[in-house]
Design a protein that fits this description.
Number of domains: 1
CATH class: Mainly Beta
CATH superfamily: Jelly Rolls
Order of helices and strands: HEEEHEEEEEEEEEEEEEE
CATH topology: Jelly Rolls
Strand order of the largest sheet: 3-4-5-14-9-12
Number of strands: 17
Helix content: under 10%
Radius of gyration: 17 Å
C-alpha cells in the first residue's frame, strides 16, 4: 500500500488575526534582513534595518507528504509596509515543473497585486482581494504584493505538494515593480531588471 492509499482525511482549522493554522508541518517567517535583496532601494533597506527588522511574510504549511498525488495547502500573510516606495511582498519564485505545478490563491483578507512573469518575459499583474481566486499557470514566476496600508494580505495557496520552489528566478528578473507614487498604486519598470539567462 503506497502513502496516497494509507493517508487519512483530515481538517485544518485556520484563523486570520491572529494567523492560525492547525495542524501544520512547517512555519516560514521572512523578515526584511532575510529578503533584503528583493528590494531595489538598498539605501531604504539599510535605513530600515538600522532601526528594526520587520516581519514581512509568514507561511504555515499543512502536514501533507511532499510527493506526487498530494495537494499542499498553506496560509500566507504579507504584512503591510513599504521599503522606500516599494510595497512589502513575497520573494517571488517559479515552480520546477512547468507542466504539472500550477497554483491557486484564494484571498481571505486585504488587497494586493499578484505579479506573474514567464521565462520568455510575458508579464501579467492581477488584483488580489476578497471574492477573488487567482490561477497561476505552472510556467509563471509569481510574487504577491500587499498594497494595503494597514491590513495584512492573507490568502490560501493550493498546489501539488511535490512542487519545488525555484528561486533562481530572482527579484531582478521581474520586469515590473509595484510601488506607491503620490498616494496611488503604480506598476513601474524594474530599474535592476536583468533578462533571464
Amino acid at each position: 500500500m503506497n502513502q496516497s492509499q494509507s493517508f487519512l482525511p483530515f481538517t485544518i482549522d485556520y484563523g486570520i488575526e491572529p494567523l492560525e493554522f492547525e495542524p501544520k508541518e512547517e512555519v516560514i517567517r521572512r523578515t526584511l534582513s532575510s529578503m533584503k535583496d528583493a528590494y531595489y532601494d538598498q539605501d531604504a533597506v539599510t535605513e530600515m534595518l538600522a532601526n528594526a527588522d520587520p516581519l514581512i511574510v509568514q507561511v504555515f504549511m499543512a502536514p501533507v507528504p511532499v510527493e506526487k498525488g498530494f495537494l499542499m495547502v498553506n496560509i500566507n500573510a504579507v504584512y503591510p509596509g513599504k521599503v522606500g516606495n516599494e510595497f512589502f511582498m513575497t520573494m517571488g519564485h517559479i515552480h520546477d515543473d512547468p507542466v504539472g505545478a500550477p497554483e491557486v490563491y484564494i484571498t481571505l483578507k486585504g488587497e494586493g497585486k499578484l505579479v506573474m512573469q514567464d521565462r520568455e518575459g510575458q508579464f501579467h499583474v492581477e488584483d488580489m482581494g476578497l471574492n477573488k481566486i487567482n490561477y497561476i499557470p505552472a510556467t509563471y514566476a509569481h510574487r504577491c504584493v500587499n498594497t494595503g496600508n494597514s491590513e495584512p494580505l492573507v490568502y490560501i495557496g493550493v498546489f501539488p505538494s511535490s512542487t519545488k520552489r525555484d528561486y533562481s528566478f530572482t527579484p531582478a528578473n521581474f520586469q515590473q515593480l509595484v510601488v506607491e507614487e503620490r498616494g496611488q498604486v503604480k506598476t513601474i519598470p524594474n530599474p535592476r531588471f536583468q533578462k533571464l539567462k
